[in-house]
Amino acid sequence: MSCCLLDFCRVQELRQVREFLFPSQKPAAAPDESKDQAGENELTWDDSDWGSWEASDPKEDGTTAEEEVQQGVPWLQDCVLSLSPCSDLLVIAREHKAAFLSAKWQTDDSGREEMTLAVSWSGTLSSEEGECVSSVICIPLASQKRSSTGRPDWTCIVVGFSSGYVRFYTENGVLLLAQLLNEDPVLRLKCRTYEIPRHPGVTEQHEELSILYPTALVTIDGFSLFQSLRACRNQVAREMSVKDPAAAAGSDVVQPPPLAYKKWGLQDMDIIVDHSSVGIMTLNVFDQMKNASILGGFHASVKGSPPAMSQYMTVGGGPFTGFYYAVEGSSQPLLSHVALAVASKLTSALFSAASGWLGWKNKNEEEPGQKQKPKVEPATPLPVRFGLPDSRRHGESICLSPCNTMAGVTDDFGRVTLLDVARGIAIRMWKGYRDAQLGWVQVSEARGEREIATSPSMPRRHAQFLVIYAPRRGILEVWGTQHGPRVGAFTVGKHCRLLYPGYRLMGVNSVTSQGWHLHTQQVCLFDPTTGVLRSITIPFHLALSDKKSERAKDMHLLKRLTALLRSRDLDPSLLESEAQSILLEIKHPAIKKQALESMLTSKNAPVACMTNVTRALLASLKEQDPEAVDESLLQLCSSQLRLLQLYTDVQLLHTPDSSPTETESLSVAGIEEDLARVGPILQRYAELNSRPSVSFAQDPGGPLPVRAFLSQLVFEGGELRVVRGPDTDWTHLGSFLFWGCLSGQSPLERVCETLQQSGISPQQLLSLLLTVWLNREKEILKRADAIRNLHTLLNTLSSMKGALDESWDVQCISPWWQQVRNACVQSESAGAALLAGLVAHRAAKSSITSLAESKFQADWEFVSLELEQWVVCVRQLEDVLALQTLLSLPPPQGSPGGAVPRCSVKSLLESGRGGVADSVAKLIFRQDAAPEMLQDIVQRRVAEQNSEEPVEELLQLAEAEKDGIQRLEELLVCVCQRFPHSLAPDVLWAHCCWEYVVQWNKDPEMGRYLEWSVEYLKMICSPHIQLGISSMMWNTFIVKRFSAAAFLMEKVGKAPKDRLCRRDVGMGDAAMTSFLGSCVQLLQTLMEADSGVEEVSVPELCMEEVWGSAEGLASIAELALQQKAVHYPLVQHHCLLASLLHAAMSFSLRLKPLSLFDSKGKNAFFRDLTSIQLLPSGDVDPNLVAIRQEFLMQVLTGWVKAVGEAEDSGSAKTGGQVDWLAVCMELASLLQVSADILRRHLVWELYNQGLDLRAEEVMLEVEDKDVLGSQLLVLTGQRLAFSLLHSQTQTKATMELLARLPPTLCTWLKAMDPSELQCPSVSLQQSSRLVCRVIEMLPENHAQYSIALHLLEAVDSLQEHK
């Protein structure tokens, strides 16, 4: 341990503080940024750049670009600084300006809390013209509350000015008091606070504030000052709470108590620049007689009791140092009139009669021609008693030690002088420290360091260190006093400031200081280049001399041992001898214990070296006096030696040279039958989990290091106990103890005997054994003899003393075997857990059977609760193995993958009644299996259940490698047969439906997920479950996006583009089309389920008997049965809207969907489907019907166009594989649109597209043949006009035929526009067939019947010519 310099605080906004105090160094601002200050009495600073401090970006080292002040200009040396002893307030002042920085806590980038100092107030402090700040001091005042006795309440800032004024401010810059005690400039302010006396005979010092003037010294009593400041602060708070300062000025003012102070006129010194108030001292009798004889001669009279005197020390010139003694009672204390000033950022008011002292005026007063200053009391002369005369040397500063016994003085010769305060002599001098800054650090001896050698009742020792900062050299040194060496040196910046308050908290006395543990910084170094405040930490033992500092020597030996243990190339024998000599040489028990622990935790020391060194240390301790030996060190050596011996013995048993004693092959009774039953599924599980995994070089491997072994075993109360650590460390320790036995490479009985003799409890050994077995599953499944070795180890551990309770009743559950079951049911290694369960079941059955035979007759059949627990546990483990094998299936390429989910009996029991179905549903999603395929698998499973074919034989049907689908089918059938209730078809489809809709919600672009979710929903047979799942899907995932799509389409009036769909709905236009189609299917399924609920009873959901204790969340199927019934008309209303939206998106139609409904219909949308809403009824507005009809006709037009394009391209895709004709007919009935009009429009569109055969099929359902015939007659004329007049291949025969046509027909044909035809080039046979259909539909008395006949003749003639 050595001195260290620690960062404890960081000052923010340092550049802004510098620019505020040094305006000449501030960058030039824009002309419009320079504005006048508002209000002549305003104390705040309103500069434009002052509010932009927090905009800087922190750098990597924690500083900001703003805080990196140029080192070339030592600006901080020109400022007056003061840091509160509590480190919560820093004042930086120059001339008439000052900035107050208060503490606050913030979190850095690494998440660590750190303290910072930020500007809380800044402004101008001076009130007199031409005065500037000459000295500042921050005094924390103790709180008077009972809950925080001895804690700081607030901090008072005392400022001395060149005009002689001393003013007192709050942390917010509010002026409390102002005193003019002398008309000369204030040179230095210093404070002395209460300190607890270390010895009974030490005089208790009083608190005081001392103010140094060039020729006078004023000391203010601390109690008087504390009371006055409290009264003034309360008065300020009372006045600040009044909004109107003018009204407050007329109120009654409580005058603060006057200040009690003494004023001494220091004589017989030419120049005084600094001082220290030592306090009250009393001479002993010898010094009293000596002084009396020197001053009065031989006949001088001596008083009976020595007088109490106040000692003051000054530095300057002529003499270099002066010592003043003021006898108590020689001067009466003066009572000052207190000038109380209240100031804030907006107002400044003075509420005392002495307001003229500060230059403030009342509004009702007329300003006098000349400012009046208060009366200054004369000083009491005080001659110098003696001094250190040195005509050429001039002192610069003096720094008193904390115990008032020594003082450090700096001079203009670059010397630092150490003075003995009591004797008044210089006892030491350092040279080469020009412009040095001094501070003191007092360190107390830690408790317990001398309790062995001395009495614990002795007082604690204290050591004092002098801290010297040499700015010219940029070095900070720590020296031991009085004649101690340099114990620390640090290289620091050349422009730092050493801050040493020299006092603590004001307002504390002997009563309130009881139990006082306030931590204050003694010395701080402030670096302006980084804004960091550093504290100096010094250990106590550095103050001890070499002869007495056994601890320092021991620390040196400890460092030497640490360096020795770090060397890797050292010879083991040399390491052992050196470590042994060092340990035996260390005297201090605590350090010796630390050294032993360092050696035992070293990774380079061999186990033999550790054993020999520990044995030697133990032997040396036993040879010493038992009363002088540290008991904890003796116990540590003894326990660690036993552990090292155990490590050595186990390591020797696991060496390859030692051959196992069990040479014969032992068989476990009954285990072959169990393995034959679970063998096929276990083999498949091993194949799926034998894939290589990633490992890292940092992973523990190889033999267990001895330091890891020692860290996990401890002796407590004479018993050896294993400390439970991370699973990896626990497994590593278990492998060290038992893996050799499990693999058949070590003698089982000898290892167990060694472990039993070590004192480790059988329960902890069992836990280690099971941990190794369960965590090294891959290696276990490859070893055939591991099962037999595990059975032997379990029997051996069970026979140990303390394993099985002798008083255990076989009808109760055994804690020993319950520990095995707990480990198996919690393990996610399904294969190893099942094998351990089978082996433990057989071992427990054998043990219980032998115990029962000794108590009961052999004729009785034995039944045990323990065995029943094992039967249930083994069945659960077999089920989990089958499920884990299914979950281990690798996903196909291109499907969403991820880590293989692991399950255990405990996790399944905690996952609730739907945990199994949820796991299988997630697997089905990862396998990307189609719903139709899974439905076929489940149907075959029902058939196989009827055939009662064993599950294990299904796994042996295909010996060759199967593809993914076959393996999925095989394992899924196996798991479904093991969980007939948890994986019932409806339950499985419900979970698959929910899993796919959840995955779709994560990625809405995958519309296929939602489509398959609806397909799984349709596969559910129970309408109750189907209704609940549909309602949950709609409320949870669908309705929000569905309403967004409807409002978006209503806003744009057409099928929206991709960008708008992604912005409002969260998916692209193609995905939105699929989404709306799935919404239609979902709502239709919901309506069908609601219709069938009353016809079928509510299904009863069951669980397997062994899984009946499952607790947790309810399954999706159970939640579905709890859903409320829906309102069928409201569901139909939403389904109608979904069909309209789907049609508009499918064919890119213009539509404002909500405009197709009246106000009732609009208000009913997106309501809860279980609520009853007012829906449209009765006749609808004809205009609304016309809009609906127009839209449905557009849908049919779009569908016909899609059908035509599909037939032209040879594709089977026709409008998204939706029967839009049926959809439109259904919509027409709901929207009160004539279905016959839609059919006529469809027939015309089909003929227009050239789909004559489809048109003839639809034509049979048309009722109004006359209107249809007139429409088709026009279309026939357009076809014939295209063939005769607009065809590019007109022949002479065609022209002759056109000339022979009747004039009426020619005129009619020329009026036709073939460009309206989607497919004008149609065969003449189709046109002839169409004319015949038209003639059949038109009556003979129809006006256009003759034109139809002429058209038939023209088509036949044209057909004959061609």
TrEMBL record:
**Could you tell me which residues belong to the region Disordered?**
25-65, 362-383
Domain annotation Rab3-GAP regulatory subunit N-terminal: ranges: 75-499
Query: Which cellular component, as a GO term, is one annotated location?
Result: cytoplasm
Can you say what this protein is called? Answer: Rab3-GAP regulatory subunit N-terminal domain-containing protein
What does the record give as the organism's lineage? Eukaryota, Metazoa, Chordata, Craniata, Vertebrata
Q: Where is the composition biased (Basic and acidic residues)?
A: 362-376
Q: Which InterPro entries match?
A: Rab3GAP2, RAB3GAP2_C, RAB3GAP_N
Indicate the family of this protein.
Answer: Belongs to the Rab3-GAP regulatory subunit family.
Q: Which Pfam families match?
A: RAB3GAP2_C, RAB3GAP2_N
Q: Which domain of life is it from?
A: Eukaryota
